[in-house]
Prior knowledge:
By secondary structure, the chain is an alpha/beta fold. It is built from 16 helices and 25 strands.
Amino acid sequence: MKDFLKEYRNKLRTPEEAVQVVKSGDWIDYTSSLGKPVLLDQALARRRDMLHDVKIRGNLIQGPIEVVECDPEQEHFIYHTWHCSAYERKLCDKGMCFYIPMVFHNNAAYYEFFLNVNVVMVTVSPMDKHGYFNYSVNTGVAAPIVRNADIVIVEVNRHMPKIHGGYDECIHVSEVDYIVEGDHDPFPREPAYIPTEIDRKIAHHILPYLVDGSTLQLGVGSLPNAVGELIADSDLKDLGMHTELCTDAYLHLYNAGKLTNKKKTIDPGKGVFGVALGSQELYDWLDDNHGVAAYPLEYVNRPEVIARIDNMVSINGCVAVDIYGQVSSESFGGRQISGTGGQLDFLIGASSSKGGKAFICMSSTYKDKQGKLHSRVLPSFNGDIITSPRSQVYFLATEYGVINMEGMSTWERAEGLVSIAHPDFRDDLIREAQERRIWRRSNRR
Length: 445
């Protein structure tokens, strides 16, 4: 058998040595989430005064990102994200991060045809006896970025779980330019999302739409956890997983005996995901588990792939909806709070699935910092970024019920949306709909 350890040792560098390849003006990629190269990021930050206009991309990365923290004026490093973590959202608020609009199923194509990557730095699991490093919970995005990079540096982290994949879950030592090792802290635990009473009410409205053998895509947050709790206590069985983001909600379903993946019409027996974020218990479950498979997002989020899964159910959240049915899920006014992600991918895919359903959910109201109550059902948007167009929104749910928007006219949409708005705001919404000539006299309040 070939001695891959010799090649490994020849490419081994200290973090300080490896980042010497970075030049002023370069585009650097940190890939996504736990793929963030902690040691390389620290070493690159120490080169700050020798570099200018180095542009860095990431996604769903927890802090701190040292190249950002060391250069708040962005004279040396300019950071970008294509989906905000809570940490990256705060950076955007400070003008220390720029958002890159991206529909996730196009991730690979963007890098292949449009984006320049001078150096990619990605965290991987330790090399196996065959010379392969595993992209682990970063499989959804890593390979297309690495393939199109001029220089590839991997940072080995023994805490990274080894994840079995459909394809593109590994990189061979022969494809790597430099290897970095070092001590890493255990991964920080993602914040626990505790369902509210409103979350549970919304989940109760959704539960009747699910059938045995449904395959689930759950977004992040307290509502998916509420759905998971209800399903765990329900009579539903043989559920499947096909999701861009795997969270503890799926582990909860698995532990309850509900997640078997047996009835999936593609990838039967496998829970499919792109990226995972959650607890150490989640990573332990995914590690060396033949019941799950990580795929690039070009597969996981491809609407044509999703449409092939019978009874595909997508459940995502949003910030607000207007009475035309347009949905904003990634901004609050002009403030970027998350990203387009895969919401549109799963809206299109799940609504094309045999027996499929795509839900977008929200509480009917929110309170501002002064405690004033506001409706999430709006007459129209004012500066908010539209994530999902009205022509592709399917089911909408609040604590007041669920409506199906597919095929609805403007007046039917307005009527449906008023019915799931908070009662305190319904009369105002009716008046606004009347002024816009999308309210019929025959509509019932």
